[in-house]
Design goal:
With about 375 residues, this protein is mostly helical. It has helices at about 1-15, 45-55, 70, 145-155, 155-160, 170-180, 180-190, 200-210, 220-225, 235-245, 310-320, 340-350, and strands at about 90, 100, 135, 145, 260-265, 285. It has a two-stranded antiparallel sheet. A two-stranded antiparallel ribbon has the order 3-4. Strands 5-6 form a two-stranded antiparallel sheet. α2 crosses α8. The two termini are about 40 Å apart.
């Protein structure tokens, strides 16, 4: 567990307090690696990554040709959208300014759009091990691997499909569209020279290959773990101690600060949609990573909390055994939930800033093969 990995530096930092004479042993911490592993059947190639980038930005994958993957996962917004619930189909604008177009029906996505930065590391355990072919995806862990995840929004009514196709015909319809675009025929031939060319499976492999390049691995915490003594401040080290002491690390563990397990926490419902009951209707959702939190607000699976203060206040309530959702009984709450006092809250929020890294790929293509606007109606 991360608790064990960090216990030595935590003790040393606690002894150091505000003095500069003693610092934690960086060798006891784990940083994210510089690159992400790929499944054996989808090795990374420049041609595949380039194709995946084009597909990620091309609205041709959506029913109305107005939404791309990038519409809700935009680099300007930390590869999410900064809305509580995403607006896909019939959406206009970028980030917090995105809204439904005039005369369109209101089809909010059912959940908050998580960042795809470092999604290539999903499933990473406390020792840095993970299997990209079985990596848990979505906030209820219903799919495994970036390859499987990448096709689901194309089939989703609210996210990309709209009413142009049925869920059953969406993928075949998109494949037919791509086959009618000569530039895509060349790009698929280059990326998959010994394969069938334009197929749903190859669309998935290409998008996944591109997403595995969207990494944020040089935070102060990562640099400190690699031996840069001054990368984290003493107050951030104290925040790390508080993070461990209060039990946060029991679920937010490993280099990605997530155990990738499902937990029942009784997050309040978002009033803009019907109740979301999570995995198997148990109101259980996956532990979210704590990296790049300033880029990824609002928080929780449905974006009901705008600030980290609100999140910690929520933990104070549920940590005392008080369910915050009428559909969740007190005895169903995860027993690991704990409250956090005001002093520790400030220290922990300071530490969380050490998990931020703004040095990630923000490239936006000038052109996509469909000749539609990259990113859709932004």
């Amino acid at each position: 567990m991360l608790e064990l990995l960090l216990i030595a530096p935590a003790i040393i930092a606690f002894q150091a307090c505000n003095k500069n004479a003693v610092t934690p042993a960086q060798s006891d911490l784990l940083a994210l690696p510089a690159s992400a592993a790929a499944p054996v059947d989808n090795s990374q190639t420049d041609a595949k990554i380039n194709l995946g980038r084009q597909l990620f930005w091309d609205p041709i994958l959506s029913g109305n040709k107005d939404v791309a993957c990038a519409s809700c996962h935009h680099p300007a917004e930390g590869y999410c959208d900064n809305l509580d619930l995403s607006i896909g189909v019939n959406g206009v604008g970028l980030g917090a300014n995105r809204h439904f177009g005039p005369g369109s029906s209101f089809l909010f996505a059912k959940r908050n759009s998580p960042t795809i930065l470092n999604a290539a590391f999903n499933g990473m355990d406390e020792n840095g091990n993970y299997d990209p072919s079985t990596a848990p995806m979505f906030l209820d862990n219903r799919k495994q691997s970036l390859e499987m995840q990448s096709l689901e929004p194309i089939k989703s009514l609210e996210e990309m499909r709209g009413t142009a196709f049925t869920a059953q015909t969406a993928l075949d319809s998109v494949v037919a569209r791509l086959k009618g675009i000569p530039e895509y025929a060349e790009l698929f031939k280059s990326a998959f020279p010994d394969d069938e060319g334009i197929t749903a499976g190859n669309i998935a492999k290409a998008i996944a290959a591109f997403e595995r390049t969207l990494l944020s691995v040089n935070s102060p915490y990562d640099r400190y773990a690699r031996g840069e003594i001054s990368a984290m401040s003493q107050s951030q080290i104290q925040g790390l101690n508080a993070f461990i002491r209060t039990g946060c690390a029991k679920c937010h563990s490993g280099p990605m600060f997530s155990d990738y397990e499902l937990h029942v926490m009784s997050v309040p419902d978002n009033s803009q949609i019907a109740t979301d009951a999570g995995s198997a209707n148990t109101y259980a959702f996956r532990t979210m990573s704590l990296r790049n939190l300033s880029l990824t607000a609002p928080y929780m699976h449905n974006g009901v909390f705008k600030t980290l203060d609100q999140v910690i206040q929520f933990y104070d309530r549920v940590g005392g055994g008080n369910s915050q959702n009428a559909h969740v009984q007190r005895n169903a709450l995860d027993p690991k939930l704990r409250g956090i006092n005001d002093h520790d809250k400030e220290l922990i929020i300071g530490f969380l800033k050490a998990l931020e890294d703004n040095a990630f790929d923000r490239t936006i293509p000038d052109h996509v093969p469909s000749n539609l606007r990259p990113g859709g109606n932004l």
